[in-house]
């Protein structure tokens, strides 16, 4: 068996008994192996033709660079085409919130692109990230970044919250799609991508929405992350990916 | 592996012929189903194909394929657990031993399988890789994603438990 101190396996007859479970069997069955190989080859050839196959077969570094480049491009486009919140709202807490969202987004991206030849990430890490991501968006609602509340009328505020939610969900979809595109099949890839999509939506909303009343942020911003995680979590639960 | 990364079909076939039987034995013992084991092995090579550009030329491929296979096995069990499979299903799936196996050996084999299944997954994985696949502790640690010390502790505990479970049988043999 194994060498040196590694040799120290079970003694007292257990080793002999365990060996009984290790017959050569028909594992070398040529015909079966050929059939399996043809199946694998077919699957690989089919995958190589798809866009997802192209992205997933890039090295981990390249996949991460692709995601970062897309995020950066989206950021630049957003910066120049959509107005940021007023300068009076760009306070320390506002910047801190954006940085937290950004850091969590990068962590999520690193987890989604985790190489498949490494032991999979422990479930607690995934649960932690998802909880922290959703928690951060909820907490942001209770941490007003400015004293100015642009809208005080409740009815209008609700409508604006609905618009923010729709906008956030719309923004999250491409982020989710991009992360799924570079995900080689990590066990919780869908859930992490959902959390990342929620974070991306919240990042943009925080950068561009001047209303920071608790109700509005909860209803219009944090709900984006909650909907992504709960919605896609349920989809993943009931219809697990292949 | 280098030739395979460069796109050689022949190299892919050689890799498959070399590692598929090893993986098949590894996964069969975990899954107790030929069909599932074949599926996992094929999926392992499919993932290997996708991850081939991550491979550093000159490094060992065996820990790679084994880690991918073990990840897939764990994922399979997690999904199975999620679907709350009934005990009946487990029983019907168990022990796909060859029919020509003598009754006594088959019974012993069932007992051994039952003892192995009583081990926690983390310990069973270590026994599987260290004893059956003859991998050194350092490599087992890389595959299961923990330290070598932790792997040694798991192996020690697993063998102690197995000895306890099979004590009467082993004594009977002597």
Describe the structure.
Chain A has one domain. Helices cover 69% and strands 0% of the residues of chain A. Chain A has 9 helices and no strands. Chain B has 174 residues and is mainly α. Chain B has 2 domains: 1-96, RNA polymerase sigma factor, region 2, helix turn helix motif (Rna Polymerase Sigma Factor, Chain: A), CATH 1.10.1740; 97-174, Winged helix-like DNA-binding domain superfamily/Winged helix DNA-binding domain (Arc Repressor Mutant, subunit A, Orthogonal Bundle). Classes of the chains: A mainly alpha (242), B mainly alpha (174). At the A-B interface, helix 1 and helix 2 of A face helix 2, helix 3, helix 4, helix 6 and helix 7 of B.
Uncertain runs of chain B = 85-97
Termini separation of chain B comes to: 47 Å
**Major sheet characteristics of chain B:** none
CATH class of the largest domain in chain B, named Mainly Alpha
Order of helices and strands of chain B: HHHHHHHHHH
Number of helices of chain B: 10
Q: Largest interface by residue count?
A: A-B, 50 and 64 residues
**What is the tally of beta strands of chain B?**
0
Name the structural class of chain B.
mainly alpha
Query: How is the CATH topology of the largest domain in chain B named?
Result: Rna Polymerase Sigma Factor, Chain: A
Principal-axes geometry of chain B comes out as: globular
Shape of chain A: elongated
CATH level-four homologous superfamily name of the largest domain in chain B: RNA polymerase sigma factor, region 2, helix turn helix motif
């Amino acid at each position: 068996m194994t060498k040196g101190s590694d040799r120290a396996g079970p003694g007292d007859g257990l080793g002999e008994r365990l060996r009984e479970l290790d017959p050569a069997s028909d594992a070398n069955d040529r015909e079966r192996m050929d059939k399996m190989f043809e199946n694998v080859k077919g699957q690989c050839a089919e995958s190589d033709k798809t866009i997802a196959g192209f992205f997933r077969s890039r090295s981990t570094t390249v996949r991460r660079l692709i995601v970062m480049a897309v995020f950066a491009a989206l950021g630049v486009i957003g910066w120049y085409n959509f107005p940021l919140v007023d300068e009076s709202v760009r306070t320390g807490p506002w910047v801190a919130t954006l940085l937290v969202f950004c850091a969590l987004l990068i962590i999520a991206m690193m987890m989604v692109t985790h190489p498949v030849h490494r032991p999979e990430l422990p479930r607690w890490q995934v649960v932690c990230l998802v909880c922290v991501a959703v928690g951060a968006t909820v907490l942001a609602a209770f941490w007003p970044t400015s004293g100015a509340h642009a809208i005080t009328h409740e009815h209008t505020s609700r409508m604006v919250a609905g618009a923010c939610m729709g906008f956030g969900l719309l923004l999250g979809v491409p982020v989710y799609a991009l992360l799924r595109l570079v995900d080689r099949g990590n066990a919780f890839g869908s859930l992490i991508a959902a959390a990342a999509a929620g974070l991306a939506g919240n990042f943009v909303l925080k950068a561009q929405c001047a209303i920071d009343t608790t109700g509005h942020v909860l209803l219009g911003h944090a709900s984006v992350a909650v909907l992504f995680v709960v919605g896609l979590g349920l989809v993943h639960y009931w219809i697990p990916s292949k | 592996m280098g030739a395979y990364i460069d796109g050689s079909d022949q190299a892919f076939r050689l890799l498959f012929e070399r590692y598929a039987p090893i993986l098949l034995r590894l996964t069969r013992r975990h899954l107790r189903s030929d069909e599932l084991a074949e599926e996992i092995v094929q999926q392992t090579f499919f993932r290997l194909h996708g991850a081939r550009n991550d491979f550093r030329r000159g490094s060992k491929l065996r820990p790679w394929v084994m880690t991918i296979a073990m990840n897939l096995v764990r994922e399979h069990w997690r999904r199975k657990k999620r679907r709350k499979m009934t005990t009946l299903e487990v029983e019907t799936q168990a022990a796909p031993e060859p029919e020509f196996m003598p009754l006594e050996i088959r019974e012993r084999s069932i007992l051994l399988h039952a003892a192995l299944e009583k081990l926690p997954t983390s310990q069973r994985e270590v026994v599987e890789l260290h004893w059956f696949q003859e991998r050194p502790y350092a490599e087992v640690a890389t595959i299961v994603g923990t330290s070598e010390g932790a792997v040694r502790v798991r192996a020690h505990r697993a063998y102690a438990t197995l000895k306890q479970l099979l004590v009467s049988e082993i004594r009977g043999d002597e």
